[in-house]
TrEMBL record:
Source organism: Sphaerisporangium album
GO molecular function terms attached to this record: oxidoreductase activity
Keyword Disulfide bond: no
Transmembrane segments: none
Superkingdom in the source lineage: Bacteria
Domain NADPH-dependent FMN reductase-like: 5-154
Record bears the keyword Oxidoreductase: yes
Protein name (record): Oxidoreductase
Length: 207
């Protein structure tokens, strides 16, 4: 059997980056949930290194070689982890631009775990009002648990009233692993096959 491919996309800008750290933790947790029954390959696409390539692709209309390679890695993934810092209550421009240059059918039927980092827990709803709709539009299968890590979440264990970061990471990773392990290899193709072009739907209505 071919190994399962997990790919984490990190839009962190700093060095070191809490966004990249969260992406790594989620990828490792998902890998560990799959590793008992599957061979797993993990790759990370760091958008910081591709910022110029992404900007050029937005202007020129086509990606260069490095960006094409990154897009192929994401397209070939069995499961995707997408992590962005939150700016002005939404995902970063770099994050959005990367997914704008990917064909809008490339993620159809693909399991995706969404996650974000920010300075305050007040921005956690950006996962639901910005990120989840983005991947729903791309027809990805987004896991129920989204993971947000505020500055105060790092290094804390939580309490009886707080679901600690480690617990959220584990739950989301387990959900992603379940979808990846149970997803047929032809799932993305199957999604495309059931889509009927609008013109064909109209033709069927004509007498």
């Amino acid at each position: 059997m071919n190994p399962l491919k997990l790919v984490a996309v990190s839009a962190g800008l700093g060095l070191p980056s809490s966004t990249r750290l969260l992406a790594d933790r989620l990828a490792e947790a998902a890998r560990s949930h799959l590793a008992g029954d599957h061979e797993v390959e993990v790759a990370v696409v760091d958008l910081r290194d591709l910022a110029t390539d992404i900007a050029n692709a937005m202007v020129a209309g086509f990606p260069g070689a490095r960006l094409r390679e990154a897009i192929q890695v994401v397209t070939d993934a069995d499961g995707l982890i997408a992590v962005t810092p939150i700016f002005n209550a939404s995902y970063s421009g770099l994050f959005k631009s990367f997914f704008d240059v990917i064909d809008n059918t490339a993620l159809a039927g693909k399991p995706v775990l969404i996650a974000a980092t920010g300075g305050s827990a007040r921005h956690s709803l950006a996962l639901e009002h910005a990120m989840r709709p983005l991947f729903a539009y791309l027809r990805a299968i987004v896991v129920p648990t989204a993971v947000y890590a505020a500055s105060e979440d790092w290094g804390t264990g939580g309490d009886a009233s707080t679901d600690a970061l480690a617990g959220r990471v584990d739950r989301a990773a387990r959900e992603l692993a379940g979808l990846v392990a149970g997803r047929p290899a032809s799932a993305a193709l199957a999604v495309e096959e059931v889509l009927v072009p609008f013109e064909q739907q109209l033709a069927a209505l004509r007498p």
